[in-house]
Amino acid sequence: MDLSVVVPTLNGRDRLAACLDALAAHAPEAEVIVANGPSADGTTGMVRDREDVDVLVEISDRTVNVARNAGIEVATGEAVALVDYDNRIGAGWLDAVRAGLDDADAVTGPVTPIEPKEERDGEAFIDEERTESDEKRRDGDDEEDGPERRAIAGTEVTYFEGGNVAFRRETLRDLDGFDEYLHTGGARDAAHRLAQMGRTVAWREGMAVAKELPSPTAADGGRSAREWGWKYRALAYRLLKNYGVRPSVVARAGTHAATDAFGAAGDVLRGESTPSRWVSTGRDVILGLAGGSSDGLVARSRDRSPARNPNGISERADRAVAKYDRRSEAEE
């Protein structure tokens, strides 16, 4: 099975280099594609100097789903994997990918955190994995030995790690890639759509990666208001887009909001936050839910196909602002 590996990155040159080193060591025959956008830390020069990267795609958007789609667009493998720039694959990763895709349409595996450096050496896209981990805790799912699963509106959904997942090519084609409306939560949205289409997601322990965590971005460990707003905009959007208006959908969004509200109130009582911040956060949550619900219903009406992706790969042709392709050079 020919494998393409797409690595989205943003201002993470040093951690990206470690990721590429691991790919060169443990998946040397894979086609490696870096989707960079738009970094200002010398990432472009570092990647172009490496001979183990087949394609570098430069994009202007600062969202991970655009980067994923830009890489998927140029991938040629029978299978396509997504590996975050701060993840490092291990020796058994490639075998686990192949075994998983023999049995399912997609395969994922564990992500093990490793200690961060004293100083953060890169700027990530909006931290999708942190948002997804928060949602997992809100749902009371702390299981570490397998994927998160959830029944929503009668559909059994198996979530996957957005920075450690592989798909059969035809699966990504039918999904039309990731929904570029979403700044965060794109992997969870894709999991909903896979479930609606009756596609399967396998879990392989051997498909493990080590993740170099960044240092905390705020002294109190809190989120910015913008992140809160986008978390709830994304949550409402993907639920309404995929399932429509249903009591279970409304209850799920409400449970998330209530749990976070009580948690933020606790921060105020402990002196770790202020009442004005609590009110501001609540406003952003409400606005996020309202905006995401409206946009989700519009998206549902725009794309009634099983893919439920009105903002997918096929809808846009201007993601890349530059492309450096060693494959064409080799052919010449």
Secondary structure blueprint with pairings:
Elements: E1 3-9, H1 13-26, E2 31-36, H2 43-48, E3 55-59, H3 64-74, E4 79-83, E5 87-89, H4 93-103, E6 106-108, E7 111-114, H5 128-138, E8 149-152, E9 155-158, E10 164-168, H6 169-175, H7 186-196, E11 201-203, E12 209-212, H8 225-243, H9 247-269, H10 275-302, E13 320-325, H11 326-331
Task: Explain what this protein looks like in three dimensions.
This protein is of the alpha/beta class and 332 residues long. Helix content is 44%, strand content 18%. The protein has 11 helices and 13 strands. It has an 8-stranded mixed sheet, sandwiched between helices. Strand 8 and strand 9 (155-158) form a beta hairpin. The protein is globular and about 55 Å long. It starts with a strand and ends with a helix.
